[in-house]
Amino acid sequence: MIAAGSAACHAACRTGAFSQGADFVLSGEVAVQSIALIITAGLVSAHPAVIFAVLMVVSIAARLYLFHFLSLRPRELVFIGTMLNGVLFLFLFYLAAADAPRSGHIAHDLVLGYGALHAGSFAVSCLLLGLMLATGACVSLVRVELSLFLQGPSYLDLAGIPYGRAHAAFLAASGALSACLFFCAGWLAAPLSALLRGPMKRGALKNAGILFACIGAGQLLLLASDFIDAYVIALVAVCVSLVRFSLEHYRGREVPA
Amino acid sequence: MIDIRDLSFERGGRLIIDFMSVRFETGSVTSIIGRSGSGKSTLLSIIAGAARSFEGEVLIDSRPVRARSTGELHRAIARFGGAGPANLDEKTGDFVLLSRAPYRKMLHAFGDMDREAAQESMDSFDLGALAHMPLGALPGGAFRRALLAFAFARRADHLLLDNPTDGLDVHDAALLSRALQRYTISGERTVLLATGDISFAAQTSDRILVMDGGKIARDMTPDGISAELVKEYFDTDVLVSRNVYNGRPQVHFYT
Asked: Does ipTM exceed 0.85?
């Protein structure tokens, strides 16, 4: 399941989904998904399929809201993301203080991935892994269109594709990938997305190499999680995201307003 | 050939292009000069099909620009000076290759001809060694050259350059001048430059148009550039000398 999450992470990074200045930790998307997971598992249903469906809807809605309707720029995005992560922190603090039912499991559900802990049968894991690998392969097919899209409306126009619709479709697809990523690998995947840079390396071999490195790193993180507290992993995820963002934007380059 | 007939264009209640008629013959390099706000860039946008709410007619190779599909327009016209690239992580070589997208079928890879055109354009602008460098890591001048290479790589029949010399040093401007010569050497392509750099316009163009208040105030050869003309349309005192190599006018400031 962690491997499926790593493959989802690789596919999402190849689309450039997290290259808008902040990855899914700093943008607050993972905080929104975490809150949705806690509420759904606590009040609606703890069935993995229900959780997966809710995460999918919430993730796509969050992406569309943040990037399409609000059209946040990187600096604003990090500000909003920090606020959302703060809300999550307060929410977790409240649950722990109130000694809410299942509050002891929440940290593990969030950090290791709900799917990995509760829907981790071999068949489901293989299915999801296959799906994520196929998604990654599909990204190669639309490599040029994606490059044009990432350059902006006047560039996508060269391929005769209307930007508005493409933007909404891109956000929906990347939202779905983000949900898979969180469902399969939780916050554990955050350091992966921070380590993977940029969309689409050229060459199938190079991409396959990065994919396997990503899956390997995911397994190492899983191993590490046996010895480290779940909250420490979440903290490391936030730190890695912040370091990456700082390196990218403060080393000789201004953060876009 | 680009044929403009009775063109008028209004934006925000202000008339930007005022009933203009002009023809740009195939095989020529024409520079449109004039002060900021005289309508040069707007004229290029209209020709490129980016602004469609105009009155009058704009014909590209005898076909109205409005009747052409987006893909057809991009294959016929390449434009420098629009929105810059948003993804600065893209490698310079890959970015220039994207210019060939209008010739490519959807979901297909670029062909050898596309790669050859992109490579030739990169070489013209001395970018060969920077092909693997991300756009965001390029120095300012090289970044501008990459944008120029993007426009030239299209190999379109009509090339529109909006303020192409902005941010270019002497070396870069010389590269652009040579690239323009090569681009039009076959006599089958039309180049339009909108620029405030009168000296560059005089060195590289066959024809100069002076725009003022949305109209063409002068239509002349580069030899028509004089200190009086610059005073009249740019309200600036200058000295105009002749290039000892090609005899074309060069503009010098007094201060």
From this structure: yes
